[in-house]
Amino acid sequence: MVGLKEELLKSIWHAFTALDLDRSGKVLSHNLCTVLNVPHDPVALEEHFRDDDEGPVSNQGYMPYLNKFILEKVQGNFDKVEFNRMCWTLCAKKNLSKSPLLISDEDAFKVWVIFNFLSEDKYPLIIVPEEIEYFLKKITEAMGAGWQQEQFDHYKIALNASREGLSAWELIDLIGSGQFSKGMDKQTVSMAISEVFNELILDVLKQGYMLKKGHKRKNWMERWFVLKPTIISYYVSEDLKDKRGDIILDGNCCVEALPDKDGKKCLFLIKCLDKTFEISASDKKKKQEWIQAIQTTVNLLRAGSPPPHKEARQKRKELRQKLLAEQEELERQMKELQAANENKQKELETVRKQLEAAAARAAEEEKKRLQTQVELQDRFSLELEREKMVRQKMEEQVAQKSSELEQYLQRVQELEEMYKQLQEALEDEKQARQDEETVRKLQARLLEEETAKRAELEKWHLQQQQTIQMTEAEKQELENQRIMKEQALQVAMQQLKQLELERKEALEQYEEVKKKLEMAAINTKSWKDKVAHHEGLIRLIEPGSKNPHLITNWGPAAFTEAELEERQRSWKGKKATSE
């Protein structure tokens, strides 16, 4: 209950400092009793807030009333989110930055609640750089981005140079500025804040969709499971509106993997004292993650340990306290060393004074010694000066002779160089004459070659002119031939067109003759039929048969053999009739 009281006090502190308790203390107290499910005590409330020197602004203050009549009666059966939202409503309007943020008011509220969870247990509340780094890392991990350690180190150095940490509103400004979420859209940052809020504040260790087998109908239904330190709740969907049941966890629970059956894969079993739950994950990885998360939760319940994030927060606080104690111990040792050093400095000062006195005596003796030494140096200096003057005169004479010798040697060297230059000039002149003669001969030969080349070029030019003239004549002749051929082609085209017209006329005539022949064939057939009914007085001349020729009084091949037989039968019939 002590830890719960500290958590409540942080949120209440924000509301407490944002309100004018002389006028709004009753409203705050009434709201706290409502959201914390604490029975209202109107008598104590009016007694505490009466208008005299014993009111909340007196020496007694507001904290005794808060502890005695509200916090000591809290049982833990209240909605933490609703409690924090009430405190946020009272303090946000006054303290929240007016500048536009990259996060919504709901995300700012969640950051404020997380700040209360991670802040130090001293007032005014601040969050130290280590906890800021932990929070930013969690958000970055939830966004799936890479952590920029170097960027945070620069920010941490600048922060440590000015203060110990950030207030809740400065932390909201930091997250809302997008300094550590560049490249991420607003929705991604919001989802990351919600995920961290669920883990740190709502104690959600894991959540996700899985299939659960019913106890009565034995059918499989998809549910949204939420794992917390002592319970697994399952809902119809992730909006958490329609809760379907709970799985109460304790140290006697266990979780086991099951083989695939009934067409379901990735199965595992949660065994409790009164019930057993069969669950199917979406894949093997999710199955292993859920089994490990549930088993870790059960192990923590057996050991009586808090949830991992609370245990980690406690360890970080203990580590900071340990480092602070070590730093204080180091400061104490430094003070002791400084005191010892001051004592040593005093002893050294005494020794220094003694040394200064001894040095003064030694300086007096040294002064006398130096005076004697100066007198000796003056005497030696006079003798050295005389010797120096003599040596300087001798050096001047030697230098003069050396200068004369150098001038003589330089003159000799100049004459030798002039002689060499004259010889080189003569050699150059000889070579130049030889080169001039060679060039003259070369020029004469080149002139002769140029004359020959020019004559040859003139000859080629004449040949080229003749060739061009011949080519022009041939070209003119070919052009004339081309024109004649074009004319002949035009004449042939005209003749072809005339023939085409004649062919069309012939075809038309042929069609007319064909029609006439068809009409004649029709008429001939009708006459042939008439003649066939008579006895052959008139016989159309037709091509003969390929069969052997028959001769009658009508002429050779006048009848075919079949026709003759037909006529014979006809004659015999007529003859028999007449008899």
From TrEMBL:
One of its GO terms (cellular component) is nucleus. The keyword Kinase does not apply. It is found in: Cell membrane; Cell projection, Lamellipodium; Cytoplasm; Nucleus. The keyword Protease does not apply. Pfam families: EF-hand_SWAP70_N, PH. SMART domains: PH. Phosphatidylinositol 3,4,5-trisphosphate-dependent guanine nucleotide exchange factor (GEF) which, independently of RAS, transduces signals from tyrosine kinase receptors to RAC. It also mediates signaling of membrane ruffling. Regulates the actin cytoskeleton as an effector or adapter protein in response to agonist stimulated phosphatidylinositol (3,4)-bisphosphate production and cell protrusion. This is Switch-associated protein 70. It comes from Helopsaltes ochotensis (Middendorff's grasshopper-warbler).
